[in-house]
Design brief:
The chain has 292 residues and is α/β, with parallel strands linked by helices. The protein contains 7 helices and 8 strands, in the order βαβαβαβαβαβαββα. It has one domain: TIM Barrel (Alpha-Beta Barrel), CATH 3.20.20. Helix 1 packs parallel to helix 3 and helix 5 packs parallel to helix 6. The longest helix is centred in the middle third of the chain and has 19 residues. The radius of gyration is 17 Å and the shape is globular. The structure holds zinc ion. The site of zinc ion has 6 residues, from loops. Its main location: secreted. Keywords: Signal. It comes from Streptomyces halobius.
Length: 292
């Protein structure tokens, strides 16, 4: 049996695998570490939150095929785990019911979420969070200079995803790096995108996702000021917390034994959340029910 090498995820703010052309830009400057307040006590392992982008058949293997996603979700279910939206995961953890839940996130809001990922999530009784950009609805991944063009969800598509019981979060307005953004851009990417998604779906998004995984203290404060209850990063290091949640990239090469290793290594590679709390602005996600 051939064994694929395990790619160790780099400890940077943008640890996407090399050659992952759909994903974002080159690594950005490391964030300025923020001191963790002494009053905040580490509590438990960081939640395991998986990071996907596009789900499609792809000769370049830079996306996860529907067949691979199907096997990855089956792998979770076979181990008594269930993928849920991040909002549901955090609420369940805050209520002491998070055991067995894994966060599933899909960045950028590719149109294939609706056609390819959603049926598989339903088959395995999972939910997920889809981070979209209202300023690019119906467009494509134009921010990526190298990757093949992939269509993004239209406004109707975003509504359909929300109506299907998935969580919609903001990935900014236009996929801007917040660590290099001026003040006006910061507000536009965080607060304006949240207002537009509220208008679009009828519900204020609870979650934000930093484009390129790039986060610093200024970006965290902008996200907090815009009213989000949580935010996803990739490897936020000292900034780790409810507004900078670590995630693990899951790719086409992640077969069962690699998933097993990533799960085992996650608490070693990522810091625990400094404190457990529940998002504050929206009502409970119905997907939080039925925890294992
Ligand atoms: Zn992105």
């Amino acid at each position: 049996m051939s064994v694929e090498p395990l790619t160790v995820e780099p400890k940077s703010v943008a640890p996407e695998p090399a050659g992952h052309l759909l994903v974002d830009a080159p690594p950005v400057a490391a964030p300025v570490p923020a001191p963790v307040p002494a009053a905040r006590r580490p509590r438990g392992n960081p939640p395991w939150v998986l990071l996907y982008h596009s789900v499609a058949e792809d000769p370049y293997h830079i996306t996860v095929s529907p067949g691979r996603l199907d096997r990855q979700l089956r792998w979770l279910r076979d181990r008594g785990l269930r993928g849920v939206s991040v909002d549901a995961l955090l609420r369940s953890r805050a209520a002491g019911r998070g055991t067995g839940l894994v966060g599933l996130t899909f960045d950028d809001g590719y149109a294939d979420f609706l056609s390819d990922a959603l049926p598989l999530l339903r088959r395995h009784d999972c939910t997920a969070t889809v981070f979209v950009m209202p300023g690019r609805a119906g467009g494509d991944n134009a921010w990526d200079p190298l990757g093949p063009r992939k269509p993004l969800l239209t406004e109707d598509g975003i509504r359909a995803v929300a109506d299907a019981g998935m969580e919609i979060g903001s990935h900014g307005l236009l996929h801007q790096d917040l660590t290099t953004a001026d003040g006006v851009t910061l507000v536009r990417e965080t607060a304006v995108s949240r207002a537009l998604l509220t208008e679009l779906t009828g519900r204020a998004p609870e979650g934000f996702c930093y484009p390129y995984g790039a986060v610093d203290t200024r970006a965290v404060e902008a996200v907090r000021g815009a009213g989000y209850g949580y935010a996803c990063a990739i490897d936020p290091g000292p900034l780790t917390g409810l507004l900078a949640l670590p995630r693990v990239h899951i790719g086409a090469a992640d077969t069962s034994w690699r998933l097993h290793l990533k799960r085992l290594l996650h608490p070693l590679r990522r810091r625990p959340l400094p404190e457990e709390s529940t998002p504050t602005t929206s009502t409970a996600d119905p997907a939080a029910g039925g925890t294992l």
